[in-house]
Each structure stands twice: as structure tokens, then as C-alpha cells.
Amino acid sequence: MASRSRLETVVSVFVTVHPHELPGLLHAFTCFFFLLGAYFVVLPLRDEGAISLGLGSLPGLFMASLLLTLFAAPASTYIFSLPHLSKSKVSLMNLVTISATWARVIDLMNSESGSRLFGFVGAGATLGQLCGSLLAVAMARLGPFLLLFSALLMELAARFSVGIGQDEYHESQELSIRSVTCNQSMESHSETADKTPSFMKHKFSAMLEGLQLILASTYLLHVCCFLWLTAVVSSFFYFQKTTVVAAVVANALDRRRMFAQVNSFTAVFILIGQLSLTGQILTTAGVTTAICAAPVVAFANMTAIAIWPTWIVVAISETLRKVLNYVLTRPGKEVLFTVVTRDEKYKAKVCIDVLVQRLGDAAAAGIYKILQGSPNKGPSTVALCALPVCFAWFGAAFSLGRRQARLANSHAISS
To answer: Secondary structure of the chain in the HEC alphabet?
Structure first.
């Protein structure tokens, strides 16, 4: 109890946390620390590998990723739809995507608690990004052997994900997923358990249930539109970054180190922002402000790159984009899912986060390939093409934020 009290005191320095929220919050923080650490240890390998294969191969790689996702997203949706999986199995399967782990965290919170705490959860991911990037810098010479270290970190993430939702002191329906699971037959989501024979008998149709939930909800379709535009603009930035780095740095080892150093530098500012600003901005300014900030900054960044297509401008723009994304837009995006049903959180969210992301990447890759064949190819041309997308992105973000606020208010009144 004494150690629990000390932990609560430390965490309370950064966020307002209630005692029954602490165990799940700390497990989520630690799980994301190891999960993102594993990702950023090998991320420079991916970025450098894309350059080594040639910039002309990037559209093909993005399309291959989309085709793989078309299989993986429905499969993961079916996995999460199984009603009688043990908690440990669910924890391991959460590592299929970061989205699946977020789905589990979101299931523990509502719009109010998510606005307070998602920044702290994200800080765990950013701390993992920082440590993983620093390790990638120090061990850049190991190359592909970093995959082994990444696998170890993912195993640790799986261990800590078991504790997300477990609270030995409380069985609050909001913050204890164990209570929801054990009493599922007595709650409003009991129909899921009743469909067990159907799931087992028609598992292939169950794989598509996440997509069906998306098509049946105008709110989720609105979320898809917002995230698709987000992915398109992010991919434009990625293409610009790789193009400029390929022109500036010739050595593969130096490129890996540069990517890792930029990730480390960015993570410091993200961590400070998540611990000091995210919760305050989301609770005071609201979700609309959080998700609308990204299109505004992206428009400014694209304008700057169109005028000055240099490595310094691209590096500054990429840093600003990532800091804003992880401090405001990403937590705000997760809050969007606090107002949907539990089925939609677990089944539809995975498809949205993974499939829509890849569709956006593929669309940007197609545009990039067309631009590469034009006589005026270059970072400035790509940036100019992205400006109209930023306008559409802002419109989608504004209307979506307003709609989420109305749903959150109606849920608060009904409860």
C-alpha cells in the first residue's frame, strides 16, 4: 500500500489520476514503453532499407503493404471477436498492432478520463521511442541483429499488457476489463457471448464484422475519412524525407544513425509535451482543437517546403509534425473512440487504424509515382499537391470533433 501511494503521488505530478485508475494506467504506460521501444529500435533499418532499394520502389512497397493488410486486418478482427479467449492470449494478440493495445486501453475509459490520462499513456510510448532510438544510434553497426533485441522488448510488452484492466482493489465497470468480461452475460453486450456458435461456425464472415460495423456507422465512416486524410499527408512527408536524405547522405550506416538521431531528438520534445500539455489541452480546449491543429501545421509545413525544399526545412517540418501529432492529434484520435460501443472499439477500430492507414499510404504512393514521372518532380511539387488535401483534412477534423463532443455530452447525460 505504501509503494502504491508513492506511485500515485509521482503520477499525480503529471496528471490527475484517481486511485482505482492507477494500476491500469501504469501497466498501459509500461506496455507502450516496451512496444514503441521495440518499434523504434528497428525503424531506422526500415527507413534506410527503403532508400537502399531505390526511391522508385517506394510506391510498390506501399502497395505490397496494403495487400498484406487486406489479409491481416480482417484476421485480427476475427481474433478479437472470439468471446472466450483468456486474458493472457488477448494480451499477446494485442501486439498484432498498436491499435489493438489502444483498443484495450480505450475500453477502460470514457471521454473525460481519456482526455486526462491518454497523454500520460502516450508518454510511455514516447519514452520507449526515445530509448529505442538511442539504442539504435549506439548499436547501428549491428544492423539486422537489432531484430533480436526488438523481439525481447515485444515479449516484455506482452507481459505488461496482461495487467491492463486488472485492479485487485476495484471492480469498476469503467476501469476493470475483468469485471466486464466476467459479467458479460449480465450487461448490454451479452449478445456477443450469445453468438459464440455463430462465430465458430461462420468464422470467415466474422472476419468482416469489423468492416460491417464501420459501414453501418456514419460516425465511424467520418473517423475513416479523417484518418485516411491524415495518412495521405503523413506519407507525403515520408516521401519528402526519404528523397532529401537520399540526396544528402550516401552511406547506409550514416543514414541509419541520422534517422535514429532525429527520432531521439523529436522524442524529447514529445515527452515534455505529453507530460505537461496533452491532458490540459484536451480537457480545456477539447478534442476538436486537438485534431484540427495537425492540418493547420501541416499546411504551414507544406508551404515552407514548397518554397524552400532543403534538408533543414524538411527536418524542422518533420519535427513539428511529429511533436504535434503525438502531443495532441494522436491522443485526440484515441478519445474519438471513447464514445462508440465496445464491439466497435475492439472490432472496428483495428480495421480502421490499420486498413485505413494503409489505404491512405497507398493513395499517397500512387500520387507520388505519378509526380515522379512528371518533368517537374521534386519536394516542391509534392508539397504543392498536398495543400488541397490539408484543407479537406481540416474540414473533416473540425466536423468530426464537433460530432464527438455532442456524443460525449449525450453519453454523460444518459449515465
So the answer is: CHHHHHHHHHHHCCCCCCHHHHHHHHHHHHHHHHHHHHHHHHHHHHHHHHHHHCHHHHHHHHHHHHHHHHHHHHHHHHHHHCCCCCHHHHHHHHHHCHHHHHHHHHCCCCHHHHHHHHHHHHHHHHHHHHHHHHHHHHCHHHHHHHHHHHHHHHHHHHHHHCCCCCCCCCCCCCCCHHHHHHCHHHCCCHHHHHCHHHHHHCHHHHHCHHHHHHHCCHHHHHHHHHHHHHHHHHHHHHHHHHHHHHHHCCCHHHHHHHHHHHHHHHHHHHHHHHHHHHHHHHHHCCHHHHHHHHHHHHHHHHHHHHHCCCHHHHHHHHHHHHHHHHHHHHHHHHHHHHHCCHHHHHHHHHHHHHHHHHHHHHHHHHHHHHHHCCCCCCHHHHHHHHHHHHHHHHHHHHHHHHHHHHHHHHHHHHC
Rounded Cα distance, 33 and 274, in Å:
14
Closest Cα to residue 352, out of 235, 216, 234, 214?
A: 214
Where residue 313 falls (left for φ over 0; alpha for ψ -120 to 50; beta otherwise) is: alpha
Kindly report, residue by residue over 86-115, the tens digit of the pLDDT. Answer: 333 333 333 355 776 777 788 777 777 877
**pLDDT band per the 50, 70, 90 thresholds, residue 412:** confident
Q: Tell me what pLDDT residue 140 has.
A: 72
Q: Which one, of 31, 74, 66, lies nearest residue 347 by Cα?
A: 74
Report the sign of the C-alpha dihedral through residues 165, 169, 172, 175, in that order: negative
Q: According to the model, what pLDDT value does residue 166 have?
A: 57
Give the confidence band of 1 by pLDDT, cuts at 50, 70, 90.
low
Residues 6 or more apart whose Cβ sits within 8 Å of residue 369: 59
User: Which burial class, exposed, middle or buried, applies to 356 when counting CB atoms under 10 A from its CB (0-12, 13-18, 19+)?
Assistant: buried
Mean pLDDT computed over every residue of the chain: 76
For 21, counting Cβ atoms within 10 Å of its Cβ (0-12 exposed, 13-18 middle, 19+ buried), the class is: buried
Structural contact between residues 216 and 351, judged by C-beta atoms closer than 8 angstroms: no
Q: Which residues contact 167 (CB under 8 A, 6 or more apart)?
A: 20, 23, 24, 175, 176, 178
